[in-house]
Amino acid sequence: MTANLMAASRPSFTREELLQRYAGGSRDFNQASMAGADLSGANLSGSYLGAARLSKANLSGATLSKANLSGASLSGTNLSGADLRGANLDGAHLNWADLSGADLSGAILNNADISGANLSGANLRGAQFNSTYLIGTNLKEADLRSANLAGASISKADLTEANLSKANLAGAKLKQANLSGADLRQSDFSGAIFKQANLTGAHLHGAKLIDTDFLEAKLTGANLSKTDLSQADLRRTCLSRANLSGANLSNANLCEADLSQKLLTSANLSGADLTKANLSGAYLIQAKLNRANLTGANLEKAHLMNADCTQANLTGANLRQANLIQTDFRGAKTKGVIMPNGKIRK
Questions:
Q1: Distance CA 48, CA 31 (A)
Q2: Cβ-count burial of 25 within 10 angstroms (0-12 exposed, 13-18 middle, 19+ buried)?
Q3: For 193-228, how does the pLDDT look when each residue is reduced to its tens digit (9 = 90+)?
Q4: 258-305 pLDDT per residue, tens
Q5: Which of 115, 202, 186 is nearest to 155 (CA)?
Q6: What is the rounded distance in angstroms from the CA atom of residue 198 to the CA atom of residue 176?
Q7: Per-residue pLDDT, 123
Q8: From CA 329, how far away is CA 340, in angstroms rounded?
């Protein structure tokens, strides 16, 4: 009974009626029911469409800048090329909507459900996505510079070549997401989850990655120079051809990580867990490895010139043909280490 009364109380408009009312100065279309309507190219900027039913409507090329669409139902709606600058879409349902090429710069999308939507090439600069659902969303080549995605659920999303520089993704969930070639420079990913994510060729220079979970992630060829990866979980992570020069990896978990041939010059690995890690041929010149756990690590042909290995645990590590010129091993545990000349240290 109550549901029927609510449905009956919802105003329903044709395209002509809506635009006529708008032209007459009306902006309040609260709870309007226009599911499946053709509103392509319509100018509804500044309108109040809170809790409106616009599922599967055609709003392609429409102007909705600074409109209030909080709690609106826009599932499967065509908003491609729409102008949604500064719009309020808080708690809106945009799952499976087409927002490709749309301008959502400065828009508010907190707590919205945008799962499975198409946002490829969209302008999302400075947009707010706090605790938003973006699971399986297409964000390929989207502009997310300075956007706030703290706590957002972005698992299995496609962020290929997206621009997320200076964005806030602290605590975001990006499990199995594709961020290959993405620009993530100077962004905050503290506490974010990248389990099994693809970050091949991603640009992360200067990013904040404290306590971030990269378990089994793919970081092949990624630029991680001068990043803060302290306390990060990089177990079984693929880091082939990645640039980690000047990175802070203190107390990070790199157990069984592949760091072969890595550029780790001046990197901070103090207190890091590198148990059974592959560091063969790695460039660890002037690196800080004090108190690091290198038990069973492979450091064959590694470059450790002027490296600080004081109080490190190198039990059973392989240092065959490694360059140890002026390497500091004071207080280090070296039982069972295979030395550069092939001899095993007792």
A1: 9
A2: exposed
A3: 999 999 999 999 999 999 999 999 999 999 999 999
A4: 898 888 999 999 999 999 999 999 999 999 999 999 999 999 999 999
A5: 115
A6: 7
A7: 99
A8: 14
Q: Where are the alpha helices (DSSP H) in 150-261?
A: none
Token code pair at residue 241: 């051809």
CA distance 283 to 94: 48
Q: Which of 121, 152, 122, 117 is nearest to 137 (CA)?
A: 117
What span, in angstroms and rounded, lies between the C-alpha atoms of 320 and 235?
24
Token couple for 337? 């280490």
Long-range CB contact pairs, 8-11, < 8 A, 24+: 10/53
* Tokens matching residue 10: 């919802």
Backbone angles phi and psi of 135, in degrees to 5 = -65, 125
pLDDT confidence band for 66 (50 / 70 / 90): very high
92, 111 Cβ separation under 8 angstroms:
no
Is the distance from CB of 164 to CB of 181 less than 8 angstroms? no
Read off the DSSP letter of residue 10.
S
DSSP string, 1-20: -HHHHHHHHS-B--HHHHHH
Q: Give residue-wise pLDDT tens across range 99-148.
A: 999 999 999 999 999 999 999 999 999 999 999 999 999 999 999 999 99
